[in-house]
Amino acid sequence: MGYSIVYLSLVVLIPLAGLLIRVTAMSWADFVRVAFSDRALAAYRLTFGASFLAATINAVLGTLLAWVLTRYRFPGRKILDALVDFPFALPTAVAGLTLANLFSQTGWLGQFLVPLGLHLAYTTGGIVLALTFVSLPFVVRTLQPVLEEFEVELEEAAATLGAGRWCTFRRVVFPALLPALMTGFALAFARAVGEYGSVLFISSNKPYVSEITPQVIMGWLDQFEYANAMAVAVVMLSASFAILITINLLERWASRFQR
Amino acid sequence: MSIELRHVSKRFGSVSAVEDVSLTVDDGELVALLGPSGGGKTTVLRMIAGLEVPTSGDLLVRGERVNDVPVQKRNIGFVFQSYALFKTMSVFDNVAFGLKIRNTPPAEMQARVDELLKLFGLDGLGRRLPHQLSGGQRQRVAIARALAPRPSVLLLDEPFGAVDAKIRQELREWLVRLHRELHVTTIFVTHDQEEAMEVSNRIVIFSRGRLEQIGSPRDVYEQPKNEFVARFIGVLNVLELTVRGGAARLNELSFPSHGVAEGETLRIGFRPYAVQISSNLQEHPHSAVIRHVYFLGVQLRLELETPSGLILRTRIVKDDFLRQGLEQGSSVSFQIREYRVLSTGANNLSPEVATVHSAANFAEGI
Amino acid sequence: MAHGIPKGPQVAMNSKSRRGIEEPEFIRKVLIGIAVGFVGVFLLLPLANVFAQAFAKGWSAYIQSLQQPDTRSAVLLTLLVSAICVPLNLVFGVIAAWAVAKFQFRGKALLITLIDLPFSVSPVVSGLIFVVMFGAQGYLGPWLDSKDIQIIFAVPGIVLATLFVTFPFVARELIPLMEAQGSDAEQAALTLGATGWQTFRYVTLPSVKWGLLYGVILCNARAMGEFGAVSVVSGHISGVTETLPLRIEKLHQEYQSVGAFSAASLLALVALITLGLKTWLERRQAAEQALGQSDSLSSHEH
After folding, report:
1. What was the ipTM of the complex prediction?
2. Distance from CA of A78 to the nearest CA of B (A)
3. N or C terminus of chain A: which is more exposed, having fewer CB within 10 Å?
4. Would you list the DSSP string of A86-106?
């Protein structure tokens, strides 16, 4: 996974991006003007910020879900396990549609949350919500096999040395999970950054406020400004791969103990 | 610290792993729990550690019942078969783990870890990660880690199972020395009878969840309580005799009937050293041919075949063998100097146990 | 294991009384509660909401909204796109996985990377690439125009974009399976006189069939549900280039809640069937593996 990301960005994507730029014969000045316009910058901030938040939420809840699914036996566990894949199977348009409805003022959840001041539909909070939904399976599915194969003896060893459960988890289990957790985080993050369908439904889609990068691209496309659309796309690609490579390096650093 | 098990049983679902085991380990002892895999010895060790809870019976430490004391509070040191070293921590941090948990002051912790690393020949390796160590070093880190918080008892599960033969021998001797120096009560599990004999003061033999015999290595070798123990400890020739005409017979061999009724069977067993041979065909009452010679170094193990096809194992010093001009195929005379009656009539162990484990022991020998 | 008594650690997993090495009952219940609550609120509730909203105005309103001509043609187009894309990607995926798993060749790493590419790129950007290539102002635009072929803002563009986005599913699922399988059995078949095709048909394929099916249903789910890439190339012409997900967007913008949710309910149903099939496949696979293992065990003992 790590290798393929680095390879992908070096061998395929950067040349691809270069090609796209050349094809559209855009001057550097024009590129900078479009790609780093205030509107685009606002969209980058929102896209990467919301994606980071969504991936972080998933890292926490995904770890909890993976733990519960692998460690405990309880009625309904298999159904729970199957449901984790639901965001993979459900078209994102449907996810966005139903989430927006659910959290709107008249929705099942919104009717309780909105009076509390929690506006999740048609806000940036809704974007985080939708991105969390579509990237939910990644952390769970990368952690599950690692937890399943985790040596019970390591936890027992910690216990015989006097460590309680929380201490054992923090000092023994978590460091061993960290590389897989980072992989899951990176996958979730990458998925969230590229997401379009669900956000379209739940966001208010206001430029500068609640517009994500793919929407900026779509905006240029609607005006048949292909070059401008591509300029933004190139920035988005480069930035997401830069982040993926960073996470990949971190992941490699974290897995230096395993052989 | 004395440890006592009183009528302890452990069931996993419908499977009974340990059945009604009672045993006492005294302060400072070095005890081996020996038996075939699945014999329940590891379960007993894990119950002492608190990693399993007995289904019934009591576990006492210094006379106090500790069944419900969680593993964290038992102050035991446990060495896992796989070592279970924390991969993400350095050797130092591994050894210091138990001390950190107990909030030991840093200076004291540093001193204790340094002391152990030195004692275990690991000085200078403190900053290494477990995967940068050899098998023997990992083993020692595991033991050092277990000993760091000064446990009242050290428990080792198949401690030498994962290292190769040569290092295993060194580690055995090292464990004996360590025990002599630290004098900490030590219980270890092994399936290797040679290891148990060599290392421990006392051996506890398990089979199928039951305790078969407790005793010193010499006791269990020379005075085995039953056929299982006799077969499991060392090589044993076993003959099944039928009483006919007042004597217990099998082919050309005959023995006293030992009070067994006419027509009934009895089983006897004897160690290879009890079979004496001579190249002089007149010297001993029975005759046989040397079918196979196994070189064991100073000693040789011989497989004899009698005219009726019985196979007996014996041992002979190499010099003696050469002096008599013996070789594979030579004819010899032999006698059985001593033997034990293993069972009479229905009073015997299930044949399954006997055959399964005798096969392994013939290969290893003593 | 002559006695059938498993060794300690394996058994320990099944035993209930592992005090000190398992979380206290209370903590366990809280964690399970959070997990169930989270999945319930975050996954199950949205699903239920789809159907609740679709039937908000009754069964007849539901049927009626599905019978809108534009919705019906969207359903047909979605079925058509998936009917084209799934078989094509099945074939491509099998060939690509076969090549990657069984042969060493130059550019193999590049091939693997290319297989993964659609997963790594935003669907909107994927669509954009096609527009740039085939669009009126694109690379091949003028040439296509002269031949009077329209790809972008037409059905072929939708098919192409969907093909691209759903390409990895079958191959990704098969590569690890085929790699794990090794090539011993295939070489054995070849020495027994089987042709390449026979070897593939009778040796390779049966051992990866569950993975293959799994890849196919995931591929289908994505093909029917793809939004971003299709949205870019479609042109949103109602009744002509509108797939079901795009139709949902249109209805949503027109504030036709029941209409949008009715259309969404069809896709949610596909998702449910996908999940059901996936679970069933995993169970079959696990059962088959267990059978295989017990076979090899018993042959070991005798």
Report:
1. 0.86
2. 23
3. C
4. HHHHS-HHHHHHHHHHHHSTT
